[in-house]
Amino acid sequence: MSRVLIVGAGLTGSLCACLLRRALQNQVHIVVWDKARGAGGRMSTSRPPEPSSHSADLGAQYISATAAYHQSHHSFYAELLSAGVLRPLECPVEGLRPRDGGKDYMTPLGMSSVVKHFLSESGADLFLEHHVTALYRRGASWEVERQAGGSETFDAVVLTMPVPQILQLQGDLGKLLSVEQRQQLDVVSYSSRFALALFFPPDAELGVSWGARYVSDSSCIRYIAVDDRKRGAGAPGRGPTLVVHTSVPFGLQHLERDKEAVQPLILQELSRLLPQLPQPLSIKCHKWRYSQVQTAVPDCPGHMTILDQPPLVCGGDAFCHSNFDGCVESALSVLAALEAELRGHAPSGQ
Ligand code: FAD
């Protein structure tokens, strides 16, 4: 049985784990490491500090499929709909551009439930707070080092984190990249933004009619959502939660500042836009240094194979585009690259 390490418990990593399991069944032992304390990556759902408030999607908000992707990725949508992970987005989203034949979905339990669904289907062993710092080729295996100390060996490794974080890895990766691959990775760029979640008490009235709104008259704030309303209904007895995303120019302007210093600027602008807001119980601020891909790997190949044997493959939204369907495309492409190598690796008779 091949031991495969997937680095990153975001959407691409969870899909890679699930697709590998379905393709290779008991020929693979799949292990997922993520440096964060929870699964989800940029599809993260943040728990409220108080149990009386609703959780908050700090990153991705909903899933929008074009008609073409809705058809080509039909099996993924059908699976998530039948599992109750996705439901049609019904709340009004002011400023959402209408698209021909496309579909919009929300996640009643938060965006991280999509990632958790695929992780659970994969049967992978998930280890959180496992920050990979280096990869070394040891004959037919990879030795993978963690920040906390210690290392483990695997027969294949899949890297699904944002490209700048892939390029930070120490060890043999840098030496194995061809000049062309290095150039392709170097052009990848991401937008940056801050996200704020405001958690309110159960009796709070926010005084807005929409579930979410794209803001066009602010240089600081681009998007605001009443997270519980966006998801169809709040949990009984829990207060509403407001999620705010800043604009990309604002994110870039304040990128190197601490989020604690930037939070008051966002709150000040929020009170200009929504002066009637009551006092929240608590506030969380998050800096998305790597938010959405602005320049993808040229020609969007879906994945990049750095070494065939032992396999080392990169995937993620940077190899396609930044949304659900981009991650599905990337995971399908990673699977195609790995499957043949891993089948070849399995002992005969399997
Ligand atoms: P990630 O989610 O970034 O996963 C990579 C994982 O790798 C992370 O969990 C990280 O902790 C981990 N990691 C990084 N370095 C290491 C390391 N050295 N060791 C171990 N683990 C590591 N998409 C939509 O479809 N709809 C939306 O509405 C939408 N809105 C968005 C709004 C925002 C603010 C953001 C930030 C993104 C949004 N997106 C949206 C894009 C979508 O979230 C991403 O395209 C998708 O989540 C990317 O998934 P991924 O698995 O490729 O990468």
CATH architecture of the largest domain: Alpha-Beta Complex
Q: Which range does the strand content fall in?
A: 25-35%
- Assembly category: single chain
* Rg, Cα atoms, Å: 21 Å
Determine and state the CATH class of the largest domain: Alpha Beta
List ligands, each type once: flavin-adenine dinucleotide
CATH fold assignment of the largest domain = Polyamine Oxidase, Chain A, domain 2
Q: Which strands sit side by side, in order, in the main sheet?
A: 9-2-1-13-23-22
- Supply the helix-strand structural class: alpha/beta
Task: Describe the overall structure.
The structure is a single chain. The protein is of the alpha/beta class. The protein has two domains: 1-35 and 129-189 and 296-350, FAD/NAD(P)-binding domain, CATH 3.50.50.60; 46-111 and 192-291, Polyamine Oxidase, Chain A, domain 2, CATH 3.90.660. It is built from eleven helices and 23 strands. It has helices spanning 11-24, 67-72, 74-82, 112-122, 163-167, 173-176, 179-186, 227-230, 248-253, 259-273, 324-345, and strands spanning 2-7, 28-33, 45-46, 56-57, 63-65, 87-88, 93-94, 103-106, 125-127, 132-138, 141-146, 151-154, 156-159, 170-171, 189-190, 193-199, 212-214, 221-226, 241-246, 282-288, 293-295, 303-307, 312-315. A hairpin with a 6-residue loop joins strand 17 (212-214) and strand 18 (221-226). It starts with a strand and ends in a 5-residue tail after the last helix. The site of flavin-adenine dinucleotide (FAD) has 38 residues, from helix 1, strand 16 and helix 11. The site of flavin-adenine dinucleotide has 38 residues, from helix 1, strand 16 and helix 11.
